[in-house]
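Notes to self, 5'-deoxynucleotidase:
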Amino acid sequence: MKKNNLRAIVNYIYEVGILERTPRSGLWFLGTGEQSVAEHLFRTAIIGYMMAKMTPRANADRVIFLCLVHDLGEARTSDLNYAHKRYGQLAEAEAVADIAKSLPFGKEVLDAYSEEQKKETLEAKLAKDADQLEWISTLRQEEEKGNKKARAWAKVAEKRLITPLSKKIVKLIFQTHPDDWWLDLKDKWFIKRDQKFRSWKKK
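result:
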């Protein structure tokens, strides 16, 4: 296929857009929460990038690419959770292979997908861990909303982690409230800000 096949690229731009509307079906069984595959891929790529920057010899660009590619086939297969997979064949690898045939740079996409699935290279291990850390973070958010199943699910995902770095990060994820990055309960800046606002209104 010609490398300047813009028609194939434009078609794929539209196909990738389907991931914005493809739900992560595991949350249906959890009972709370909503997340699209595209949202999952974005945070996975960010996590993968940060982990790669903290890992000597890791190629950060490669990790990002693996993170982005690992669920691309779900635009065609949808996201099937473990119950679905038990009764229905998940042909995601076949879908990625078909996608690869339609793109000028398809071999790169297929090779990246295969690399991530095999979990043999350093970059693939980091990408796979980033995938799990994103899922665990999502579960922690649901736990803090009151979902009683979320912690047990997150603990199962924790067992899939491969790298020492991811195992350190996950401990902090469990210890950190999802709002801590903006809401400091010790400092109570949000209360002080409100007091200043009321004081300003009286003038």
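- Residues 6-202 form a domain with the Hypothetical protein af1432 fold (CATH 1.10.3210.10).
- Residues 122-144 form the longest helix (23 residues).
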